[in-house]
């Protein structure tokens, strides 16, 4: 195999990336496991926002176990050793987890938006939160479903052995439509929604701070006037 210009074959580079990936995987598993156990065991932490965070932690652990372990091994090994099943399943999990995370982050922003801008409105219940999480999971799985059928093992001549690729064959037009749809649903819409919600929240909080400052000044003005009058009386005497 012609790998003379491939830095991933350098022992130093392999050691650095192996250390980085190992640290990320270990910290990801430990950190998210602590979050999951804390929310599961402590009843006071089982709030609606924490339910969303709980689901995010589960998704992150799944990525740490599957995607984060397979990617560096395949890159350094220069051969796909995991079989056709993981060739299809690993990208499906990676894409689904990414979609699920963005949908959940958007749901958290909407929950914060409604809570702060409409404080008298009834907040999301636990049942509604579970329903939102389920819908996010189903949508993420649906948008990532093509990965189960379009990932193929192919030999890469003169560079490596068999490798896992996304192969749409002659359906290039459908691939472009799918890519555009995925970009819109997975990135553009959640980003726009999150930006709108947190911008509105920041404006509302800014108005609240200004209102409190104004009221504080109004209360302090009569006191200052009384102090000035008392000072003048003392000066006269």
UniProtKB/TrEMBL annotation:
Keyword Transmembrane helix appears in the UniProt entry: yes
Membrane-topology descriptor: Multi-pass membrane protein
Transmembrane segments: 12-40, 52-75, 81-108, 129-149, 177-206
GO cellular component: neuron projection; plasma membrane
Location, primary (coarse class): membrane
Cell location: Membrane
Ranges where the G-protein coupled receptors family 1 profile domain occurs: 31-237
GO molecular function: neuropeptide binding; neuropeptide receptor activity
Record key words, sorted: G-protein coupled receptor, Membrane, Receptor, Transducer, Transmembrane, Transmembrane helix
Family according to the record: Belongs to the G-protein coupled receptor 1 family.
Protein name per Swiss-Prot or TrEMBL: Flp-18 GPCR receptor
């Amino acid at each position: 195999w012609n790998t003379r210009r491939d830095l991933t074959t350098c022992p130093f580079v392999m050691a650095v990336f192996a250390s980085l990936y190992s640290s990320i995987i270990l910290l990801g598993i430990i950190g998210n496991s602590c979050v999951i156990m804390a929310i599961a065991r402590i009843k006071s932490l089982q709030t609606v926002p924490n339910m969303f965070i709980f689901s995010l932690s589960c998704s992150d652990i799944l990525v740490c176990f599957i995607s984060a372990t397979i990617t560096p091994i395949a890159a350094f090994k220069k051969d796909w050793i995991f079989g056709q099943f993981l060739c299809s399943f690993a990208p499906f999990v990676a894409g689904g987890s990414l979609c699920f995370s963005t949908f959940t982050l958007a749901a958290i922003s909407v929950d914060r938006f409604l809570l702060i801008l409409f404080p008298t409105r009834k907040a999301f219940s636990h049942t509604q939160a579970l329903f939102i999480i389920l819908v996010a999971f189903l949508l993420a799985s649906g948008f990532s479903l093509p990965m189960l059928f379009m990932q193929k093992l192919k030999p890469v001549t003169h560079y490596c052995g068999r490798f896992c690729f996304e192969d749409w064959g002659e359906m290039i037009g459908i691939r472009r439509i799918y890519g555009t749809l995925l970009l819109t649903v997975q990135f553009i819409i959640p980003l726009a929604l999150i930006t709108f919600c947190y911008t509105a929240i920041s404006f509302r909080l800014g108005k609240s701070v200004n209102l409190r400052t104004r009221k504080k000044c109004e209360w302090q003005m009569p006191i200052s006037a009384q102090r000035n009058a008392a000072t003048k009386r003392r000066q006269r005497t």
